[in-house]
Design a protein that fits this description.
The structure holds 2 protein chains of 2 kinds. Chain A is an alpha/beta fold. Chain A has 2 domains: about 170 residues, Rossmann fold; about 120 residues, Rossmann fold. Chain A is about 30% helix and about 25% strand. In chain A, a hairpin with a 2-residue loop joins strand 2 and strand 3. In chain B, helix 2 crosses helix 5 and helix 3 crosses helix 4. Chain B has 7 helices and 15 strands. The longest helix of chain B has 17 residues. The chains are: A alpha/beta, B alpha/beta. Chains A and B meet through helix 3, helix 4, strand 7, strand 9 and strand 10 of A and helix 3, helix 4, strand 9, strand 10 and strand 11 of B.
Chain lengths: ~325, ~270
């Protein structure tokens, strides 16, 4: 087991851009590596990505393994898997970190199964125990339970939730190696991306302010007032599952266990009672504000600030006051 | 010349019997789930997987086999799967399967599918409400050496050779999957139908097949099952105590003004 050394971070790339989760993982990997006195590696797939690979060094990698090939431009689960498996067999990292994005959660299990190693999903913290072994912290039971998990095989593989770790400052003076690897390509993998669907999607997990609506809204048109409020606050509109089920708003706006897990600076829940499945998607928000007519609604248990009352009275008032404030009128 | 294949189209749905998350209670002292507090049911995400299989069978014909790995008390869950459209249900149950993590679970399920012999399409729910890992589906695909597409939110076209699906990877992609293959579906893929009384009566009489470790011994390495085949261990678990929140409730006429004040103080409003 001791032949396994170092931490490998899978760098996620879309349309030639590196996903910020990769920099967050490098930040945490650097911190663990400095304690364990080992190196941080990163692996990047794509086409003509050499310049972008340097970013991984600026954010904390000592060595970047680059797989540059036209067929690796788009996510290809089989070819990504095969090349990561080859790399892990050669380099023998002790720990492998992958972002718990849809891509990471589709890819990581295949790598783990191929290597017959343990994989822990969607971690929200990583710690070292007194023996220097990795403790993986993750929620289970729709976020009601927190488990600490250790892995007996190597490498220890983990997917990590977006936005739980902070990236380091980009350091242009950092030095590291970029190693171009020979790519193994399987031509006919059985999965083929036909096209990206031409729809605009809101990336709600990146939003700093979310104004969310739930069952307290009476009709589709009423979402407009939430939109107005969100615009005034510089945020985006979210929704609980019932509104998505009704077809009032698209799935990319959904906050909750079966939708998006968010952690904005401000989460403003309007007419949301706070089911376990909704709380699992927003309980880590920095500040939670709840507006609900029912004082016993569970959402108030997780709220920093609350107003008990009819959202149809409170929100228009809030909108008016915010407009006045913008115009410089004293309330 | 039209060649009509007489071979059935074989659909496999993997089902996790899990507790009703709205009802289940947690033992805060011991940090465990009180599993007796809620009966087992089909994991809600797997209802969509089963419905997807039923809709495909309506188009292509064939046979749906539901497979679960669970304790014997999960039998009613598989009966429910039959009521909802499965033709055959297999319960993998054995003390030697217990304590399995996702690697051992996926290996066991993949071994059962191998034992089954024929499969064209395997369908799983996106994840489970208790484990939350979303790992078992793709791991099963890897064990079987077949391609997979995760987070399928729409099934556009189906044929005996391939599937055209929309995969929701943050942005939606239209993806073609060659069969045999595996998909994991999200809750958007369909609206599961409720079983009728007749379905329920039929299910009551159906036979639930029970397979043990010995039934899989000829297709699998039995050391990779259960606790001994599981590299991950829970070393500590506790019930989540909600982050300490201020819990300030504003009332009365000036409630909105007070809210604006605190949002200014918190640096949200500038």
């Amino acid at each position: 087991m001791s032949e396994y050394k170092g931490i490998l971070v899978f760098a996620e790339q879309r349309n030639g851009d590196i996903h910020p989760i990769s920099f967050e993982l490098l930040g945490k990997a650097r911190e663990i590596a400095d304690k364990k006195k080992c190196e941080v590696y990163s692996v990047l797939f794509g086409y003509k990505m050499r310049e972008k690979a340097k970013e991984l060094i600026y954010f904390g990698a000592d060595k970047v393994f680059l797989y540059d090939h036209p067929l690796l431009k788009e996510f290809d689960v089989i070819n990504y898997k095969q090349n990561v498996v080859n790399l892990i067999r050669e380099e023998k990292p002790e720990i492998v970190l992958i972002g718990a994005t849809p891509l990471g959660r589709s890819l990581a299990p295949r790598i783990a199964a191929a290597l017959k190693t343990g994989l822990t999903a969607d971690c929200i913290d990583l710690q070292l125990d007194e023996d220097g072994e990795l403790i993986q912290v993750r929620p289970a039971f729709t976020g009601n339970l927190i488990a600490h998990i250790k892995t007996s095989t190597r490498p220890v593989m983990t997917t990590v939730r977006y936005k739980v770790f902070k990236a380091r400052e980009r350091d242009l003076t950092r030095k590291g190696d970029i190693v171009e690897k020979e790519v193994e390509i399987v031509e006919d993998v059985g999965v083929r991306v036909v096209r990206k669907e031409p729809v605009e999607v809101v990336n709600i997990s990146d939003a700093e302010i979310i104004v969310s609506g739930g069952r307290g809204l009476k009709k589709l048109e009423d979402l407009k007032i939430l939109e107005e409020l969100a615009n005034l606050l510089g945020g985006v509109v979210g929704a609980s599952r019932p509104l998505v089920d009704e077809g009032w708003i698209s799935k990319d706006h959904q906050v909750g266990f079966s939708g998006n897990i968010v952690r904005p600076k401000l989460y403003l829940a309007c007419g949301i009672s706070g089911s376990p499945q909704h709380l699992a998607g927003m309980r880590d928000s920095e500040i939670i504000v709840a507006i609900n007519i029912d004082p016993s609604a569970p959402i108030f248990n997780v709220a920093d600030y609350g107003i008990v009352g009819d959202l149809y009275e409170i929100i228009p008032k809030l909108i008016e006051k915010l407009k006045d404030r913008k115009r410089g009128v004293k309330g | 010349m039209v060649v009509i294949s007489l071979e059935n189209f074989h659909l496999v749905v993997l089902i996790k019997p899990s507790p009703d998350i709205e009802k289940v209670r947690f033992d805060t002292v011991r940090g465990v789930v009180d599993r007796s507090s809620a009966p087992l049911e089909i994991n809600p995400f797997d209802l969509n997987a089963l419905e997807a299989a039923v809709q495909i069978k309506e188009k292509l014909g064939g046979e749906i086999t539901a497979i679960s790995m669970a304790p014997p008390k999960a039998e009613p869950v598989l009966r429910d799967a039959i009521a909802r459209g499965a033709d055959r249900a297999i319960l993998l149950t054995d003390k030697r399967f217990a304590g399995a993590d996702t690697l051992a679970t996926s290996y066991t399920l993949a071994s059962a599918i191998k034992k089954l012999g024929k499969f064209d399409l395997i369908i799983c729910g996106e994840k489970t409400v208790d484990g939350d890992t979303a790992q078992v589906g793709p791991e099963v695909a890897e064990h079987l050496g077949i391609p997979h597409v995760a987070y399928v939110s729409r099934i556009e076209e189906v044929s005996r050779e391939r599937l055209l699906v929309v995969s929701d990877m943050g942005v939606p992609y239209l993806v073609e999957l060659r069969l045999p293959g595996l998909i994991t579906v999200t809750k958007d893929v369909n609206k599961p139908r409720l079983p009728t009384l007749r379905d329920k009566l039929r299910a009551r009489k159906a036979k639930i097949e029970v397979w043990t470790v010995d039934d899989l011994a000829d297709v699998a390495d039995v050391n990779r099952f259960g606790f001994s085949g599981s590299p991950t261990r829970v070393v500590k678990a506790f019930v989540l105590t909600e982050k300490k929140r201020k819990g300030v409730i504003f009332k009365g006429e000036d409630a909105v003004d007070r809210l604006i004040e605190v949002l200014e103080k918190e640096g949200i409003l500038r």
